Amino acid sequence: MKSTDIRVIPGLFSIAIILFLWFIVAPPQGVSANAWHLLALFVGTVVAIIGKAMPIGAIAILAITLVALTGVTNDSPSEAIKDALSGFSNSLIWLIGIAIIISRGLAKTGLGNRIGYYFISLFGRKTIGIGYALALSELVIAPVTPSNTARGGGIIHPIMKSIATSFGSSPEQGTSRKIGHYLALVNYHTNPITSAMFITATAPNPLIVKLIADATGADISITWGTWALAALLPGLLCIALMPLIIYAIYPPEIKRTPDASVFAKDKLTDMGPMSYAEKIMISVFGLLLILWAGVPAMILGPAFAVNTTAVAFLGLSILLISGVLSWEDVLKEKAAWDTVVWFSALVMMATFLNKLGLVAWFSGVVESNIAQLGVGWMVSVIILVVVYFYAHYFFASTTAHITAMFAAFFAAGIALGAPPLYLGLLLAGASSLMMSLTHYATGTSPIIFGSGYVSMENWWLMGLIMSVVNLTIWGVVGGLWWKALGFW
């Protein structure tokens, strides 16, 4: 690890917080010493992640080490190390890791670019059509791209930039508002929506599934199909409205773009016919969607249900056997292995905070404060979700935010009378939609913001507007949709 990977001040600050909570602050009444000490380690870990004291994987290794050495989960050293490593046995973590490796095939085969240029060739005669083409392209690849950063920043953004440049729109020339400003905003604001639509569309979503299951004693186990169905209507509505809203607030100077369709067709011509690797990739893509959605079980019965993570391993196995991906590709996919490490550490700490009673204590504090207002569960949910959502102004990581707040706010909402699945789905959607707020909200934002097409003022204003629109749609339209589906 390079010395430049270490930021001393945030690191010292996180250590100071751990020591302060561990030695200075006494555990509140009803909280055990072990639970409080684990909280100290947890808070210090989250602060280190927010402050980027080290790469998140390195922070995770330190967290695992401290949990094992301090024995906060178990007095027995042999049991403590088992507890510290228990996150690696979580199948949802491996689902995301394997899905990230599978998504490497989109870039390696060129299928991701082909999909993007195909939609632009269909809808690219007007600027707003290009916007919808970018949104639809990301929607199509979202189910098998757990890295929202790779999807929005690595695949769609280069396509967006090439289109903008072809029309002479660039920050360097002062011509961003021709078309690039609009397309960059659409490029970005698609990312939170597609991330909210599938368990496998962004890495922290499986963590949410686990936190909901833990809080309800596994009474609510959200499957890939349940999540996708629940998010279908609100997600599609958000995608339908988003390019129009951005167009109305920041209209591009160029409205008609007949050359964009020609440009995309030329790109497709350059790519030539779909290759063997692309055909295998799209076949695996279809197979994953069918199995994740539980189609065999629907048709043939529960005996033919397949575990979601096992399906991901099946997809990767096919890509390896067919030669679309090599073992070297698997080893080189650093994002996947990095995710498995940090995800395991955070899941482990969140799990034991719950087991040791800390989450129940904190949710009780939140619940009692809202209960004093004397409002019904609907108003209570609005308060909880709004506070949870806009707290993201203080976070540079959705993972850190979810790990720090989701479980307590979900438990508090249930205690206040909210239907568990409704609240869980609403908070799950909010956990991705909150990415819209700032230029540091998630890994995708600095990539697109850094391209220079959008000023910080415009970025934050558009983020605030879209946050209100998306959250309202998820809460109202989503709530009615879930009611119709019998989810609450």
UniProtKB/TrEMBL annotation:
Protein name per its UniProtKB record: DASS family sodium-coupled anion symporter
Q: Please state which protein family the record places this protein in.
A: Belongs to the SLC13A/DASS transporter (TC 2.A.47) family. DIT1 subfamily.
Q: Which organism is it from?
A: Shewanella metallivivens
Residues passing through the membrane, by range: 6-26, 38-64, 84-103, 227-250, 280-299, 305-327, 339-364, 370-391, 403-428, 459-482
**Mind listing the UniProt keywords for this protein, alphabetically?**
Membrane, Transmembrane, Transmembrane helix
Q: Where in the cell is it found?
A: Membrane
Membrane topology per record: Multi-pass membrane protein
Main location per UniProt? membrane
InterPro entries, per the entry: CitT-rel, SLC13A/DASS
